[in-house]
């Protein structure tokens, strides 16, 4: 299948590691030019060098803090000036800390709101003028908590729902501009984030991390954690020219873990 991605430009947020990095790598392999960003310049340099060694699309990096509106404006401007256009926006962010409701402070709530929801709103607002020109795609990365709350992840449970509301609203408002907007939600994908969550849950339950791992895989019909590149391929398809009619949807990549209909 021709994904019609060659020569497109993607801005992939929070892309120095984990799912963001995997998405950027998949795009480069499909000959997409990619802007990567995070707060860690050293990691960005290494990832950018790695991506450019793939002999596909070109990668460029820009250091930014996506909780800072000034940084967001400069990030979008740098992407446009570097590549001339923006065809694809992938909103992504590091997950909020593990906590229950009673463990969560007001400061934690505000920080998670700024990182996991407000950043998506701000970046999208800034990128829309460019996306209108290209009839582009917006992909909002969330979590399986959009379908089934995850114990011990109070902040994710509430703000990822906000991402779905954002996606649904934008899908309708931007349809007349030819912009498609979707949410892609990972289940248990083998990244540093899952390592952190498994360790936190093991500590809370006073059991070994190995036991958490075994119990988690038992609940997944495919019997294993997903790989970042498997998740990235789904994002790549939703962002591609092969998708011309999916918008406002929430797509789970979870190996069948979530049982809700």
Characterization of the model:
- It is built from eight helices and seven strands, in the order βαβαβαβαβαβαααβ.
- The chain folds into two domains: 207 residues, NAD(P)-binding Rossmann-like Domain (Rossmann fold); 35 residues, no CATH class.
- Helix content is 48%, strand content 13%.
- Strand 4, helix 4 and strand 5 form a beta-alpha-beta unit.
- Strands 3-2-1-4-5-6-7 form a seven-stranded parallel sheet, sandwiched between helices.
- Helix 1 packs across helix 8 and helix 6 packs across helix 7.
- It is globular and about 55 Å long.
- The mean pLDDT is 96.
- The two termini are 29 Å apart.
- The protein has 261 residues and is an alpha/beta fold.
Q: Which class of the largest domain in CATH terms?
A: Alpha Beta
Mean pLDDT: 96
What is the strand tally? Answer: 7
As a whole number of angstroms, the C-alpha radius of gyration is 18 Å
What is the helix/strand order? Answer: EHEHEHEHEHEHHHE
CATH fold group of the largest domain = Rossmann fold
* Order of adjacent strands in the largest pleated sheet: 3-2-1-4-5-6-7
| Distance N to C terminus | 29 Å
CATH architecture annotation of the largest domain: 3-Layer(aba) Sandwich
pLDDT < 50 runs, ≥5 residues: none
